[in-house]
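Minutes, project huddle
Topic: does the predicted pose make sense with adenosine monophosphate bound?
PN asked that the exact inputs be recorded in the minutes so nobody has to dig through chat later. Recorded below.
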Amino acid sequence: MIIVLTGAPGAGKGTQAEMLAAKCGYKTFSTGHALRKHVKEGTDIGKKAEAIMARGDLVSDAVLLEILKAELQGKESDVVLLDGYPRNIPQAEALDTIDKQIVKGAVQLEVPREELISRLSGRRVCAQCGATYHAENSPPENEGVCDKCGGEVVQRTDDSAESVAHRLDVYEENTKPVLDYYREKNLFHSVSGTGSPEEIFERLKEVIGSLT
Ligand code: AMP
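Predicted holo structure (tokens), as shared on screen:
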């Protein structure tokens, strides 16, 4: 079964998915993470996706469905938290074609736009292990070096000021309608995505626990 974790870029879906996986045993899948891996490895998908992602636009629905189907194979009896999919109505419909009952709920992390901009433009990530930092609020101990694995801490190309603004617009236009899609199916839930990661985690744990 799938729980869709939704919300704007920078809402904290990735961080919370990791915490939920570590503490509650859920499986997680981030389409953004999977695509970045393709780019890093220089696969055909990665070559096509790289420029699109750097601009903050959406990669084609067909490519995403292919990636998703491959990931879900053999996980029929797991609870999978989906981070970053569906990003538009055709993707939400495609998910339902895999199995009409597969989505048990969609949970939005709600964060005001000004905070999203501050989070995304200050975000830094480890190029090696993916650990996330914030340039001002939670930098690594040694500048540019990951505390966890010693990898290089960098800014994602799509966290530049220009791409951030565009990604938020893409979210408003393409992904917001997905919230209504799940609202109409009585599968929609929303929790506040502001506060400490632990506070947000507690809110999410309760809602997701009631759905699974
Ligand atoms: P994320 O890490 O979720 O912010 O995703 C980073 C980028 O990957 C997005 O800005 C898109 O370019 C691409 N991407 C991730 N998930 C999807 C999706 N479901 N559909 C289309 N593009 C996606």
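Observations noted during the meeting:
- The first helix runs from residue 13 to 24.
- The radius of gyration is 16 Å.
No decisions taken; revisit at the next huddle.
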